[in-house]
């Protein structure tokens, strides 16, 4: 017997026993008035049976007039009634078994709540599809699954139905039939008042704050309002909690939530099949209805439904307005001075939709006032809204909700955290102040900040249109082109605003570059054309795919139209925060600018009467930016290019990075990192805030950079390259020789070099004696390799023989030392090497493993989504 089922069965028996004992001690009237029931609540981990005291004895079906009386219906999708404190749905027969999207959002939350993406009013809690179905004298809410499918005309259709039964979320007794018996009346009070995971608090918050359940005495349904296509329910729920973000004395947390139930189209939008060569969010399923001789995995892109008002004019190539425009409303809580810039960020996408043949396809608007539209609500699932949060989070994100049957995007609530402006200010200063006098100030002008907000708004709206990050886009522009004023005025920093190609850190003083941020570019126009172009007639998704494939192959090989996915550390082109087609060259320019900025931080951000917190923040940002440059370069070592292709396209999908580029990457590290970057130690600036940690930070940065280079997955790819390509490969032996030349230089090593040499030896020691292979239980080798964690069995690989040889070379080449400290240092290294080669005690890895493409210095690395992952 399933453990959960067994526990729940025991619970039911115990509850029944308690109920029996209680009933024997009560009067007959009490027994008649109060009935013990079991309510089943669906949770992410299964169903949990909970005992509740329900309503009175089961009543028969009443006359509609007797139950409703003179209560006026709130007419809409379902007519709704409030009678004696209870809420009723009148469900017409015509809507039984129709699919409805149910979206629950926070309206108000407790102060200090910590759960990223689910902590502020307006953020989504859950979404699910419901179907209301009738069986005898009951109504059930069923939750369909869309993970497997087969077309209704397929021979497999019935078989798929038989193994894809819809779960039952809730059940209701029919209280009455409506006047003309074309619908039924049910009581939904307990559904919306109860602790139902699908429309209540998410499991992660329950665990975080040790929540045990809803306190009904401190909870209520505020309103239920019905509209032609949706029903909006607002509830206030107080949860019993063992922890609180602010005050544990209450023993509870109170939330206000809104649940929207939106009728889905009877006929789903025609789906568009995904293509790995063009970036779109999507959804996958196993399709048993195809002609393939296997269970075929298919996927549809997420996109809004755009159809031309005038199909004939559209077919002639004229720009045509869509039948239904995409509209985004700006949260009324947004500071007024930023509203025009947020709207501009929405409207900027119209030029991309023009590439798909539509004009005025999208528009940003201020939300109507209560006087203009008393029914408008920012929580209503009919409306897409850019929600503004009073938050210290430095982020913004652009989610969307789609029809699981077709991929049609139905609505979106962009999350905009107030403190994203702090991140924008810091990064724009650190990346451009060397060439941009306009940011050499403590606080940007509203016009300057407004333009940055507009850029982020466009990026987040792109996500809500179905576009994921395109981390490969910025590689399309040559590094030197980003030093050209005419080029950057036209193109910005990358062909796609969906890349994390922030601000132009490459341009040098005297270049005259003034346009320093990304914009909607060539790739964005192409991807919107690919996803949103309308094909008249009754073409199937497969037929449309054949037409789109011709378009895709025409763009193949042109870096302007390259899509590079997020989520892999194999391809050095696919990095966040990078610019240009050569990381070594771009990072050299970037470091030159950091050297110009760092000595001037205090001068350029002077604030009378303020302490030096801002100087410290920006100094840390300089170190963080330097760290990013190191990561960009390191990814070239053992890197591979990834170019998805189909059978009818020539050339490899995966190819190793050129040998010379990998060599250049190690030489860059030798020059910029392993030769101590003492320019980071500016005594005048540091004296304002540093209490003796900067030297340790630089040492840690150097040692962690070594660990990042000597990564087992990286070395696995290098051995693979050598096996396949021989002398054309940059080998592990080449890397060791190059690293040793930079780390063990001639002359007396200073404290930084001594620390670095110990770190190098200790990292080799860990590779020789520890299992540093990537370990992700349940993941296949192919899945690990797909994200850059190339599997390797270190114990049986060539890593250890090479490491042993390297340690021996170091030991035999160490000099005696010119002074007592240096002599002691070299003696210590020899002992460390001896212990590595002939271990006598457990090994402790002091250098750290170093994740692929990632550094572990304590400087902040703000890689949050979406502006700085999209949720």
UniProtKB/TrEMBL annotation:
Molecular function GO terms recorded: metallopeptidase activity
Q: Which residues form the DUF5117 domain?
A: 122-309
In this record, what's one Pfam family? DUF4953
The record's keywords, sorted A to Z, are: Hydrolase, Metalloprotease, Protease, Signal
- Locate the compositionally biased regions of type Polar residues: 859-871
Per its UniProt record, what InterPro entries does this chain match?
DUF5117, DUF5118, EcxA_zinc-bd, MetalloPept_cat_dom_sf, Zn_MMP-like_bac
Q: Which residues form the DUF5118 domain?
A: 61-109
> Where does the secretion signal sit in this chain?
1-26
Q: Where is this region: Disordered?
A: 848-871
Under PANTHER family, the record lists: PEPTIDASE M1A AND M12B, ZINC DEPENDENT METALLOPROTEASE DOMAIN LIPOPROTEIN
Q: What is this protein called?
A: Zinc-dependent metalloprotease
Which organism does this sequence originate in? Answer: Mucilaginibacter rigui
């Amino acid at each position: 017997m399933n453990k959960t089922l067994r526990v729940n069965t025991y619970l039911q028996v115990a509850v029944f026993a308690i109920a029996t004992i209680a009933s024997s001690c009560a009067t007959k009237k009490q027994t008649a008035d109060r009935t013990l029931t079991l309510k089943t609540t669906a949770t992410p981990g299964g169903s949990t049976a909970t005992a509740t005291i329900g309503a009175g004895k089961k009543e028969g079906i009443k006359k509609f007039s007797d139950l409703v009386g003179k209560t006026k219906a709130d007419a809409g999708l379902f007519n709704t009634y409030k009678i004696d404190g209870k809420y009723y749905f009148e469900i017409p027969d015509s809507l039984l078994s129709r699919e409805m999207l149910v979206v629950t959002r926070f309206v108000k939350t407790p102060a200090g709540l910590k759960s990223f993406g689910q902590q502020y009013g307006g953020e989504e809690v859950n979404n699910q599809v419901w179907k209301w179905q009738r069986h005898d004298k009951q109504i059930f809410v069923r939750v369909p699954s869309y993970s497997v499918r087969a077309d209704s005309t397929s021979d497999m259709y019935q078989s798929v139905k038989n193994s894809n039964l819809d779960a039952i979320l809730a059940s209701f007794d029919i209280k009455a039939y409506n006047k003309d018996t074309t619908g039924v009346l049910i009581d939904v009070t307990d559904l919306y008042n109860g602790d139902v995971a699908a429309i209540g608090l998410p499991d992660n918050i329950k665990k975080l704050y040790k929540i045990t359940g809803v306190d009904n005495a401190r909870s209520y349904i505020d309103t239920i309002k019905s509209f032609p296509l949706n029903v909006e329910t607002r509830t206030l729920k107080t949860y019993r909690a063992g922890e609180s973000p602010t005050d544990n004395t209450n023993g509870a947390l109170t939330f206000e939530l809104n649940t929207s139930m939106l009728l889905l189209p009877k006929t789903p939008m025609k789906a568009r099949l995904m293509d790995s060569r063009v970036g779109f969010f999507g959804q996958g399923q196993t399709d048993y209805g195809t002609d393939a001789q296997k269970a075929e995995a298919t996927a549809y892109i997420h996109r809004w439904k755009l159809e031309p008002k005038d199909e004939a004019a559209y077919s002639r190539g004229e720009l045509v307005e869509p039948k239904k425009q995409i509209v985004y409303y700006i949260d009324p809580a947004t500071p007024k001075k930023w509203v025009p810039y947020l709207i501009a960020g929405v409207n900027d996408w119209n030029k991309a939709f023009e590439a798909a043949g539509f004009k005025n396809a999208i528009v940003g608007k201020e939300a109507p006032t209560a006087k203009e539209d008393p029914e408008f609500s920012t929580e209503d699932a009919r409306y897409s809204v850019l929600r503004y949060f009073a938050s210290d989070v430095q982020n913004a994100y652009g989610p969307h909700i789609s029809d699981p049957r077709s991929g049609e995007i139905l609505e979106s609530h962009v999350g905009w955290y107030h403190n994203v402006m702090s991140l924008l200010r810091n990064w724009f200063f650190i990346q451009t102040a060397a060439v941009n006098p306009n940011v050499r100030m403590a606080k940007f002008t509203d016009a300057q900040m407004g333009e940055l907000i507009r850029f982020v708004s466009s990026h987040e709206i792109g996500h809500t249109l179905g576009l994921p990050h395109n981390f490969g886009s910025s590689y399309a522009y040559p590094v030197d082109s980003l030093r050209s004023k005419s080029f950057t005025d036209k193109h910005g920093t990358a062909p796609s605003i969906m890349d994390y190609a922030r601000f132009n850190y490459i341009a040098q003083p005297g270049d005259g570059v003034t346009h320093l941020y990304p914009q909607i570019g060539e790739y964005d126009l192409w991807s919107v054309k690919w996803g949103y172009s309308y094909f008249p007639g009754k073409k199937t998704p497969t037929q449309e795919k054949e037409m789109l494939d011709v378009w895709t192959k025409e763009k193949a090989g042109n870096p302007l139209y390259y899509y590079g996915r997020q989520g892999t550390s194999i391809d050095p082109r696919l990095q966040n925060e990078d610019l240009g087609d050569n990381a070594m060259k771009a990072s050299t320019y970037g470091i030159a600018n950091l050297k110009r900025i760092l000595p001037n931080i205090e001068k350029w951000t002077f604030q009378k009467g303020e302490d030096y917190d801002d100087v410290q923040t920006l100094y840390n940002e300089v170190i963080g930016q330097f760290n990013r440059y190191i990561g960009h370069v390191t990814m070239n070592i053992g890197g591979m290019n990834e170019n998805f292709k189909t059978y009818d396209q020539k050339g490899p999908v995966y190819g190793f990075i050129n040998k010379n580029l990998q060599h250049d990457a190690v030489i860059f590290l030798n020059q910029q990192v392993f030769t101590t970057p003492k320019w980071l130690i500016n005594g005048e600036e540091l004296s304002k805030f540093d209490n003796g940690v900067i030297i340790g930070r630089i040492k840690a940065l150097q040692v962690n950079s070594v660990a990042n280079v000597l990564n087992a997955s990286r070395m696995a790819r290098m051995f693979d390259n050598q096996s396949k390509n021989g002398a054309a490969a940059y080998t592990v032996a080449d890397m060791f020789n190059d690293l040793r030349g930079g780390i063990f230089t001639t002359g007396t090593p200073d404290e930084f070099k001594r620390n670095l040499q110990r770190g190098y030896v200790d990292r080799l020691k860990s590779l020789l004696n520890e299992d540093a292979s990537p370990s992700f239980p349940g993941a296949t080798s192919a899945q690990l390799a797909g994200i850059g964690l190339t599997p390797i069995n270190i114990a049986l690989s060539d890593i250890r023989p090479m490491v042993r040889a390297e340690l021996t070379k170091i030991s035999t080449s160490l000099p005696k030392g010119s002074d007592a400290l240096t002599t002691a240092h070299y003696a210590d290294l020899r002992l460390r090497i001896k212990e590595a080669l002939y271990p006598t005690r457990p090994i402790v890895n002091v250098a750290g493993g170093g994740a692929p493409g990632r550094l572990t210095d304590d400087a902040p690395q703000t890689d949050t989504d979406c502006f700085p992952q999209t949720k």
